[in-house]
Fold this protein.
Amino acid sequence: MNITSKVNKLDGLKRSVVITVNKDEYLAAFSKDLNKYKSTVKIDGFRSGKVPEKIILKNYRDRIHGDALNKIIEASLKQSLESNKLETASPPQLSIDKEPSAENDLVFTAEFEIYPLFVIKNIEEISIDVPEVIIDKDDIDAVISNIQKQNIKWEEKKDKAATGDKIIMEYEGLISGKEFDNNKHENFTFIIDDKINGDPATVGLYKEFYKNSIGEDINVEKSFSYKMPDDFLDKNIAGKTIDYKMKIKHIYKGDLPELNDEFYKKFGTENSSVDIFRENVKKHMNLELEQKIKSITSAAINEKLLDVNDFEIPTYMLQSEVKHITTQYQGMTQNLDDKIKLELDQIARKRVKLNLIYMKITEDNKITVSQDDVYDYISKSDPATQEQLATKVKEDKNYLNHIKNKVLEDAIMNLIESKCKKNKLQKKFSEVVN
């Protein structure tokens, strides 16, 4: 195609290219489309293929012009990008500077962002901490104890609440006598003195409920105040004192199941012994540990990749990712204050930057993922996971691409892990798998 183009560098990663297409290209495209109309258009009073050209032009000139214009813009833009080695990271925004005609060349401008040009820092210099765990008897005992606790049989009691009892209560919290979002619960349930994992505010509040429940009877009503930390996520209640009123509705005492044949049977080890059961538990612990260490290693590698590789990211990609995760967040909660927006922006920025790093590593190392690799990944999953993945692929054809991306990410992680420096840190099972 007979074109000329001029590339202009704008702010950051923005570029514009001014493209001039010779009028002969437009006339040829217009003529080609006109001939199609001549052979296909139907107008009352004329046989198909016999409509005079001037009648066709009178009725369809603008449409033919638009079709021809779109075709030569698309083709010339593609040619210009390829010849100037420009890869767009955002949809080009087009503007017509001069309409084409029999006398005038077409001149139009395309504005877009390009992908950043950067070099991946030496992977061999990346250093990560990787936990090293030897599962011992105490670890197995702790896991079995947790399994027993998860299978406790609860019976309602009339005695006073004690450590280990399950409490069902209702409560209401007020700030200066006023309600706030999620300030009440009709059937709040917890086990007194049970270990809680969470932020300091949540852990602290649970401890207050424990303290105000122990030694109390059913239907007892109590009040206490709790000051939320100044840095609490929800700034509407951060740093404020909440006055709680609570009422115990039910108290349950737990009966811890014994380790016997009936208990083993629940976990697929019928006619088993304590030794076989412990061995099965250890096997599952090893699988869980393997997945957890893999997750920790990937997270450590990602953080290092983000730390040592600094480059500008396309605004369009960032805005798209912010929109995506904001929609996800709003689906879980309605609160979206300035602090949350800032945090979502930071998450989106990391995701976009990491995706660009992955793209660069894939390109530099010529990593490819075939259809066979995807099916091999599925086949190596456990039977339940295989069935689940197969169902998802049938329901959503795009899910196959999701699996392909997962296989590609694993390949990238394996490559980096094989080259980077790893510092082995001795850890307990409970420290790694919480």
Observations:
- DSSP finds twelve helices and eleven strands in the chain.
